[in-house]
Specification:
The longest helix is centred in the middle third of the chain and has 17 residues, at 67-83. The two termini are 17 Å apart. This protein has a four-stranded parallel β-sheet. It is α/β, with parallel strands linked by helices. α3 packs parallel to α4 and α5 crosses α6. The chain has helices at 7-16, 37-44, 67-83, 109-125, 137-144, 151-163; strands at 21-28, 48-54, 87-92, 129-131, 135-136, 173-174.
Amino acid sequence: AKLQGTFDEQVAAAKLLGVTHMRINSIEMKNFNGDITGVQKWADAGFKIILNVTWSDINPAPFAKGNDLATFKTNFEKLVLLCGDMVYCYVIENEQTNTTFYDYANYTIYDYLNELQAGIDICEKYGKICCDGGLHIKIIEQIMIGNLKKDNVIRQNQCINYFKTITYSGFRINVHHNFN
């Protein structure tokens, strides 16, 4: 859950809850200018950062491809070097199979996977952890029973098949569950 209140109130609440790692606002690579003040602020407060990295913050968003992928690589490497040990894990995009967030009329899951691979390669170069934007357990269940009819299920299955072919430091699964 997102903490509410001022920065100082959020820090106090997180520390009261025993939180050691904080997922902060994403940083857009398309227009990255070297500003990591948000990362620095949370690190100075004593937290390790889980940092979402996006190509573009528009909605629905494109993925970096072609010349944009080259810019993504340059800017992402700059970000990794600037953040040093403040960032625990870099998350490339968020819920990458979600059509609400991403422009699948003009981009494919393979465009995302190329962007993810670029992030993985840079993180491995510097000994950092990198993960995808998250798979959903309910969609994984659909894949397991062979129900590959919906576009987002097909895209998530394509991600899983790709993940089986590479080695990288982490992956994310989103679990939505009603707790009683």
